[in-house]
Amino acid sequence: MAKGFVRIAGLAASGNNSPDHRAASIEIAYAEHVPLKGNVRLVIMPKQFIENPRTSSRNRELLDRLDELGIQWDVYDWRANETPNFYLDEIARIVQQHLRKQGQL
C-alpha cells in the first residue's frame, strides 16, 4: 500500500510537471458505510452544489441531515476550468476558521 501511495504522489497533473496537492492526501476505502456522526467534524463542498436547481431538493435533504447530526458544513466558490490546487487556500482558510471557532487553534 505504501508503494502505491508513493507512486500516486509522484504522478504529474495533466498538463503540468508537478502533482497537485491531492497527491499528498490519503484516501481510505471501507467495505461498509462509516457513520458520519462522531467521525466527521466539518463538510466543505462547492456552493454550486447547493445552488444547482436540478438537484437542490436532494442537496437540501443532505444539508438538513448534516444539521440534524450536528455536523457543521461550509462552502467554497467553485469555478470552471480551475485545478484543485486553485481551491487549496480557500479550503484551508475554511478549515482554519472552523478549528479556531472550536478552540483547536
What does this structure look like?
With 105 residues, this protein is mainly alpha-helical. Helices cover 43% and strands 10% of the residues. The protein has a two-stranded parallel ribbon with strand order 1-2. The radius of gyration is 16 Å and the shape is globular. It starts with a helix and ends with a helix.
- The secondary-structure class comes to mainly alpha
Instruction: Round the Cα radius of gyration to an integer and report it.
Output: 16 Å
Overall helicity: 40-55%
Number of strands: 2
Mean pLDDT score: 78
CA-based shape: globular
> Given the structure, what is the number of helices?
4
Distance between the termini: 32 Å
Tell me the domain tally.
1
- What portion of residues belong to β-strands? 5-15%
Q: Write down the secondary-structure element order.
A: HEHHEH
Low-pLDDT residue intervals, each spanning 5 or more residues: none
